[in-house]
């Protein structure tokens, strides 16, 4: 059961097509849109400002979303937030990506179809232009993204949108096996890297 908490009479909203892992924590003014994926141990604290994940966004394992009072923290449509990232009072625009363990601070804007490299630190108030690669601590714009870069990012996001569906339909808590069974099955993917359901 997902850990969902009301505070000051405000409770989270989760669209029925979104998947939220049971170990994630949602507090207060949190809005999770359609086809979103929220991974294990993510923390969404809407106890100061509003937190919004728009359609198809993903927030992976151990990510943190928070913000100052009266300020929204937003991940727009198809936003992609890698493992361990921290978003604080910022906006991640449509089809943008924040890499693993990166930090994006207050009033920063990650431009549409941009990528923040893993472990980068985006300072408060930084506005990243669309289709930019930023990296470093503090983060700096390094180059413009190519069509191939954006396609790569978009593919990863589609995998997480598919994972939301798979998780809603097939993930369940079980006891671990004590031995590896003969002919142990693998989770199958096709040549394009998309999940291949069992026949």
UniProtKB/TrEMBL annotation:
Gene3D superfamilies tied to this protein: Hexapeptide repeat proteins
InterPro entries named among the record's database cross-references: Hexapep, PaaY, Transf_Hexapept/Carb_Anhydrase, Trimer_LpxA-like_sf
Pfam families the UniProt entry points to: Hexapep
Record's protein name: Phenylacetic acid degradation protein PaaY
């Amino acid at each position: 059961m997902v850990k969902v908490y009301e505070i000051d009479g405000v409770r989270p909203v989760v669209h029925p097509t979104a998947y939220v892992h049971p170990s994630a924590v949602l507090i207060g003014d949190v809005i999770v849109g359609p086809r979103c994926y929220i991974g294990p141990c993510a923390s969404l604290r809407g106890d100061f400002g509003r937190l919004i994940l728009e359609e198809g966004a993903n927030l992976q394992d151990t990510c943190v979303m928070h913000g100052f009072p009266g300020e929204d923290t937003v991940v727009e449509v198809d936003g992609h937030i890698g493992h361990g990232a921290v978003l604080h009072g910022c906006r991640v625009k449509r089809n943008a990506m924040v890499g693993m363990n990166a930090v994006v601070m207050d009033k920063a804007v990650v431009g549409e179809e941009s990528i923040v490299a893993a472990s980068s630190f985006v300072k408060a108030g930084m506005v990243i232009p669309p289709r930019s690669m930023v990296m470093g601590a503090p983060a700096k714009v390094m180059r413009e993204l190519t069509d191939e870069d954006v396609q790569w990012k978009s593919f990863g996001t589609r995998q997480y949108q598919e994972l939301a569906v798979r998780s809603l339909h097939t993930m369940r808590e079980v006891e671990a096996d004590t031995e590896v069974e003969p002919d142990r099955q693998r989770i199958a993917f096709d040549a394009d890297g998309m999940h291949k359901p069992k026949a």
